[in-house]
Amino acid sequence: MSSAQEFQQAPHKLLVIPGPIEVDNRILYANASPSVSHVSPAFISIFGDCLRMLRTILYAEKTGQPFMIAGSGTLGWDQTAANLVEPGEEVVVLNHGYFGDSFAECLEAYGAKVTVLKAPIGGIVDENELVKVLKEKKVKLVTITHVDTSTGVLSPVERYCELIHKTSPDTLIAIDAVCAAGSEEIRFDDWGLDVVVTAPQKGLGVPPGLSLVMASKKALGVLEKRKAPVTAYYASWRRWLPIMQAYEAGQPKYFATPPVQLVNALHVGLKQVLEDKPSLEERFKVHKQVSNYVKDELEKMGCGFVPLDRANSANGMTAARYPKGITAADVLGPLAERDIVVAGGLHKEIASEYFRVGHMGVTAVDQQRGDIEKILKNVKEVLDIARAKQA
Amino acid sequence: MSSAQEFQQAPHKLLVIPGPIEVDNRILYANASPSVSHVSPAFISIFGDCLRMLRTILYAEKTGQPFMIAGSGTLGWDQTAANLVEPGEEVVVLNHGYFGDSFAECLEAYGAKVTVLKAPIGGIVDENELVKVLKEKKVKLVTITHVDTSTGVLSPVERYCELIHKTSPDTLIAIDAVCAAGSEEIRFDDWGLDVVVTAPQKGLGVPPGLSLVMASKKALGVLEKRKAPVTAYYASWRRWLPIMQAYEAGQPKYFATPPVQLVNALHVGLKQVLEDKPSLEERFKVHKQVSNYVKDELEKMGCGFVPLDRANSANGMTAARYPKGITAADVLGPLAERDIVVAGGLHKEIASEYFRVGHMGVTAVDQQRGDIEKILKNVKEVLDIARAKQA
């Protein structure tokens, strides 16, 4: 017989890639909850709670309509493109790496005319360029990858929002916060965001399998007034909005079967984010402190960084350049042999030059686990061994 | 400390709706597996195994290309519509209830010109009507709901396939087998199917959260030659095909993060289907035997059935009409109080006249559980109590 208190996940290598991340025992136990009807009162209440907690975590109490749909984070891009952009409309993509490229491809699939503003590798898009394009064209939507995990660059979302609202008030703003929600502060209402696309498996510390999206009233108004039909079914907010509203009101309604166990797991995970620690603000502070500590220590070991500047570096992960003379083979395999899984490079132009470490969720917040010290100690040891071999 | 052997799910009401269904302890334990990288060799091997086992279960070894994507079963409709139908092309939907209506709506969202052949409630579409429309129009695709859970009708898929191949050899055939895979025999290669859309939470006995699709070589060839762009990203097979091929070949490749834990759970579930019982053929026989037994016993209690005829009745569920004088209130609530959850009616024209019982997966196959006897005993008791009150 197992219970939530007794349950311990199986022994495994420490997973510290930029997501999926380590998952707490209580969350995994909820992911093994017995089958329950997706329209039962108990499940409806849990589903509704998740929607409300997402609103709280994203500071979206005033204008946010959450959507929680079975899928990967990527499905959030489809939701954004399918619902908000009509064929031929102009969209600007602020591109800080791999995930900016992909978001642009998704928008184009739905007929958007996409202008990509591409930052230099590790840098951020120049705000003057953004203002210029907003003045030249009638831009329906700007998309921003909050943290591009391929480069570890943190976008100055608040600043971009100010500029967009000032220069082109009708333009909608969507952020890809898959690797930001739960580890970076996102002020949906205050920043005037229209869409936040995220997923459970990064800063929220829950297994993958849900597309979590927050849409503004303004965005839903734009959807209501659009002329072209929405050429999607599963990604159509018109299909899902009545479901989300019903679940939040405690009423059953069916469109497609939700991933019942995973919603239970998310429920436990979001409660941990909101209730187990002193405050949400504190959570973001802890992520910053841990991030600075990891980066300082890696720097002492001779690593550089892909982001050109600390202010625009993610707080939930680090994209660290190998010290001179060190290669991926010196680090990735040897760490895995020590039961620590970090990720290699993803940005194709520099993939062999850097590695990526996740320090989000329990790994950052639950310091009793000792994950951070374990990572740093072992990175140092494998670097020392590699250097000794060279000498 | 928990282990696969020790793990016991929490006590709960017996869930015998037409899906999600009861999930075996070993499968739930796999759904609580620790985080692992979605591109690690161990996970790639599990993912590849799942694809291979899906092919086996659907008898699709010769022509089937499996897709396994985070989402609900509904996403399979989008995949079918988005990839195979160009705007303005003719599609025929064989409609046996609620899920036929919805598949038609999905096809229309992608621009298909849909002709719905609607069966009388509980009946099946007349094959002459099907042949007639295939002769009148150039039909790109016929869709068939294998089991429509709103009516419990089982479509004669093999027979429809014969007629379609004979009358209009170029026409593609897609079946919605969400409530059929694992509980009804599906002969992908032999019947000449082009798409099977399914999901884990019904006859396969795994938690919901995956869209499982099998596509034929012919279907992929049609996709290759299509002229109009695919107006979808997450539902686009062009994005996913290289991923599925890579995983099956044991190679890492990334498009969107798969639901790692749920894929582990599916792996255990599919192995149970293929290895724990004498044979797959035996599994379908057991489902038939159990179905006949449940239907015979319900008939003895005075119940009728929504399907007009036993031959076209699902083997994994029963849509039973209340005996004369009995209403939903006499059955659904009283059964729930006895910790048995069945479902009410779903077909809007007759919703109050019937209830639905699932007898798929472990409930049918693992007879040591005693689920079937428990259901029948309690249905009989609540009906007797209701009758006693009337007398």
Automatic annotation (TrEMBL), chains A, B:
Any one of the GO BP annotations: glycine biosynthetic process, by transamination of glyoxylate
Keywords attached to this entry: Aminotransferase, Pyridoxal phosphate, Transferase
Recorded GO MF terms: alanine-glyoxylate transaminase activity; L-serine-pyruvate transaminase activity
Q: Which cofactor does it need?
A: pyridoxal 5'-phosphate
Taken from the UniProt entry, a GO cellular component term is: peroxisome
Positions of the Aminotransferase class V domain = 29-347
The membrane spanning regions, by residue number, are none
Residue numbers binding substrate: R356
Q: Which Gene3D superfamilies match?
A: Aspartate Aminotransferase, domain 1, Type I PLP-dependent aspartate aminotransferase-like (Major domain)
Entry EC no(s): 2.6.1.44
A single Pfam family, by name? Aminotran_5
Q: Which residues carry this modification: N6-(pyridoxal phosphate)lysine?
A: K202
Q: Which family does it belong to?
A: Belongs to the class-V pyridoxal-phosphate-dependent aminotransferase family.
Q: What is the protein's given name?
A: alanine--glyoxylate transaminase
